[in-house]
Amino acid sequence: xxxxxxxxxxxxxxxxxxxxxxxxxxxxxxxxxxxxxxxxxxxxxxxxxxxxxxxxxxxxxxxxxxxxxxxxxxxxxxxxxxxxxxxxxxxxxxxxxxxxxxxxxxxxxxxxxxxxxxxxxxxxxxxxxxxxxxxxxxxxxxxxxxxxxxxxxxxxxxxxxxxxxxxxxxxxxxxxxxxxxxxxxxxxxxxxxxxxxxxxxxxxxxxxxxxxxxxxxxxxxxxxxxxxxxxxxxxxxxxxxxxxxxxxxxxxxxxxxxxxxxxxxxxxxxxxx
Amino acid sequence: xxxxxxxxxxxxxxxxxxxxxxxxxxxxxxxxxxxxxxxxxxxxxxxxxxxxxxxxxxxxxxxxxxxxxxxxxxxxxxxxxxxxxxxxxxxxxxxxxxxxxxxxxxxxxxxxxxxxxxxxxxxxxxxxxxxxxxxxxxxxxxxxxxxxxxxxxxxxxxxxxxxxxxxxxxxxxxxxxxxxxxxxxxxxxxxxxxxxxxxxxxxxxxxxxxxxxxxxxxxxxxxxxxxxxxxxxxxxxxxxxxxxxxxxxxxxxxxxxxxxx
Lengths: 273, 261
Hints:
The complex is a heterodimer of chains A (about 270) and B (about 260).
Chain A: E1 19-32, E2 35-48, E3 52-56, H1 63-71, E4 78-83, E5 86-87, E6 95-98, H2 110-114, H3 116-120, H4 125-138, H5 154-167, E7 172-176, H6 184-201, E8 204-209, H7 212-218, E9 221-226, E10 231-237, H8 252-272
Parallel strand pairs in A: 3-8, 3-9, 6-7, 7-8
Antiparallel strand pairs in A: 1-2, 1-4, 4-5, 9-10
Helix pairs in contact in A: 4-5, 5-6, 7-8
Chain B: H1 10-33, H2 45-58, H3 61-92, H4 94-107, H5 116-123, H6 127-151, H7 155-163, H8 168-197, H9 199-204, H10 211-220, H11 224-252
C-alpha cells in the first residue's frame, strides 16, 4: 500500500513510509481552581504516510486531547506537532476531522454537506458534483444526496461525515470515537466502510477509540494510553493481512492481539477506578 | 385521554380549544343577559358585536388599526435590525458578551412605560416617540434571546467547520447564522407578540389616533363596549402576526422535519 523505500519512520512501523505526522514532546496541563492537572504527559510518536493508527485507552485518559491538539482545536502546553515537516498553527482544512457527536449541517442536504468544504474554497459546481457523486458511491449512499440529516440513521450520518472530511482532500483524517454512539452491528459495518474508504483514498488516519476490537480491526499500529496523567504506554503493531474482512475477528491471531491489549488496558482501567 | 404525554386524536384536540371559547362566551352571556353585572361595566356580546360593526363601517377603526400596526411594526423592526446582529455577536464573541450583557441585563428591568416622560422631553409627541416605546419594550429582551439562541449552536459544528477550512467571516455567514436561524425566527415571533402589548402604553400619552388612543378615549366616555372591541382587535392582530411567523417558520425550515415537507 505504501512504498517501502524510505526508512526514517519508526523501526517497528509496519509501513516504512515517510513520516506524515510527527508529535514531539506534546503535553497538556489544565489550570483549575485547585491547581494544575496534567491531562497529557509529554508524548512523542510518528505516523507514516498512509498509515492507519488507533489510540486505545480508557475514558478520561487524554486520548481525545491528543487528537484535538493535532486538529489545532486545543493548544499544547509543551512540544509541537509537525505535518509533512511543518509545524501546525490552529485548525485547518489539511486536517479533516470526524467527531463522535453528529456534526452534519442539519440545514444542508447530504450532497451539500459532503461538498461544504469545497464550496467554501470556491470549487466550481461541476467539480463539486463530481466529487459528491464519487463519495456518495464510496460510502454507499447513492440515492440519498437530497436527504437532510434528520432523515438519516446514526450510521448514515457518520458515513456522510466521513465523506465530507475526505471530499476536502485533507493530508490526514482525525477521528474521535466516530462510531462510539452507534450500536454494535452498525459499528461493525461502519468499520468495514471506513477501511474501504481508507484503502481507496490512501489517507493517513489517526483514530481514537476505547473499543479493543475496533482498534485491532482497523489499525496498522495501536497505541495504548494510560490514564491520569495520559501517557502513551505501548505501541502494538497489528500484522493482520489486508484487505481485512469481518471474519478476521474470529481468527486466533486477532484473539492474541485482543488478549495482549485487554491486559494492557485492564491495568489502566483498574488504576482509574 | 388523561394520561400524561399521551397523544390524542386531532379532532378532540381542536374541539377542546373550541369548547373553552364557548364556555367563556357562555359565562359572559350569563353575566350580562342575566343581569348579574351592570351593563355600564360589562356590555353584552351582541352590543360589542354591534359596536364593532359600527366602528368598522362609520368610525375610524380601520385607520386606527393601520396607524397602530405601523407603530408596532417600525418599532419592532428597528429593534430586530439592531438586536439580531448584536445578539449573534454577543452569543459568539465573548468580548461582545462581556461588553453588552451587563448593561442590557440592567436596562431590561426598567419599565418601558417609565421612559415615556423622558422620550417626550427628548423627541416630542410624534410618531418617533410611540415607536421608541415599542423599541424599548422589545429590544433588550430580543437581543438577549438572540444571544442565547446563538450560544446554543453546537460547539462541534463550529469546530468541524474550522477543519473544513471555514474562515472567520464564513463561520458567521455559513454556519452560525443558518444554525441559529430557526431560533431567531421563533424569537422574533415571541417578541413581536410583546410589541403588541406595549402598544396601549405607547398610545396612552399624547396620541390622537391608534387603537390604544381609542381605548383610552372610550374609557373617558364610559364606553366599555368600545374598550372590549379595541382589546379583541389587538388580540386578533397579535394572533395573526403569530400565525404569519409560524407559516414562515414552517416554509423555511423543512429540514427540521423528518418528512421533509
